[in-house]
Design goal:
The chain has 259 residues and is an alpha/beta fold. It has helices at residues 16-25, 72-82, 101-105, 109-119, 149-165, 227-233, 251-258; strands at 4-8, 30-36, 55-60, 63-68, 89-96, 124-129, 173-178, 186-188, 199-204, 210-215, 236-241. Helices cover 27% and strands 25% of the residues. Strands 3-4-2-1-5-6-7-11-8 form a 9-stranded mixed β-sheet, sandwiched between helices. The protein is globular and about 50 Å long.
Length: 259
């Protein structure tokens, strides 16, 4: 029997990136799609605890899937505990847009879904595809001008390797970022600090009242061995991530401060 995989994302159940991942995984796994019913980018690991969740079985591209009217984390929890899927891993993506640096993975719904899966006992892999035009992240995710052919090859190869060899005991999530044009191979990386030069733009509405847009261009590059630098070179960035956010290096000084 093929291993079972729960496939989710944060761009929504109709996203072309989600179904590109499905195409890549179907030959090697029994794949069940459980994904948000609508666009849920940048919600991180937020979870719906103040409202009920509606779950609808839908047919996309001739395949039955589950659309969850909630967050990516909700979709994972529904798949694990309500649909009782018992997958060997959770795959999240392919996200339209890169998820690089500590700044990005803390807000990414794509990575958030994989982290939630691991928190619930099933480790995950998050896949994201770089876009040259940042506006592509905000377009209809059912359509995307960039080819997913290279990304699908990466998804299948990475998942096959992990299925064969397993996750490292010290890894909860593998964060994979694929350049828009793959020029090199895999590069195991650490998280860069920043992905954006954060800014805020103030505007006035028709009544003269102010409102604000959080914006900012991408950072040009980052240090060697970081995920941002790897993508800028055209390499596929692979970053092992742990749920444990404890700063062990700070123990001694923190004990001095509070001891």
């Amino acid at each position: 029997m093929k291993p079972s995989i729960l496939l989710t994302n944060d761009d929504g159940v109709s996203s072309i990136g989600l179904w590109a991942a499905y195409d890549a995984l179907k030959p090697i796994a029994d794949v069940t799609v459980v994904a948000p019913a609508s666009q849920q980018s940048a919600v991180g690991r937020s979870i719906s605890i103040f409202e009920p969740l509606r779950v609808t079985q839908v047919t996309m591209n001739g395949i039955k899937a589950w659309a969850v009217a909630g967050k990516p984390t909700d979709a994972v929890i529904i798949g694990l505990y309500s649909l009782n899927l018992k997958p060997v891993m959770v795959v999240s993506g392919i996200n339209i847009g890169e998820n690089l640096s500590t700044e990005s993975i803390m807000t990414s719904g794509t990575v958030g879904a994989a982290l939630e899966a691991s928190n619930q006992g099933t480790k995950g892999i998050a896949f994201s595809l770089q876009v040259e035009d940042q506006g592509d992240k905000f377009d209809d995710p059912r359509y995307h001008g960039h080819s997913f052919d290279s990304a699908k090859k990466v998804v299948r190869d990475v998942v096959e390797r992990v299925l064969k060899n397993g996750f490292s005991p010290d890894t909860d999530v593998i964060n994979v970022n694929i350049p828009s044009t793959v020029k090199g191979g895999y590069e195991v990386t650490r998280l860069a600090h920043k992905l954006f030069h954060t800014g805020v733009e103030k505007r006035l509405d028709p009544r003269g009242r102010p409102y604000f847009w959080i914006n900012g261009p991408l950072v040009e590059d980052a240090e060697e061995d970081t995920d941002v630098h790897a993508i800028r070179k055209g390499n596929v960035s692979i970053t092992p991530i742990t749920l444990d956010c404890t700063s062990y290096k700070a123990f001694a000084k923190t004990k001095d401060l509070f001891g």
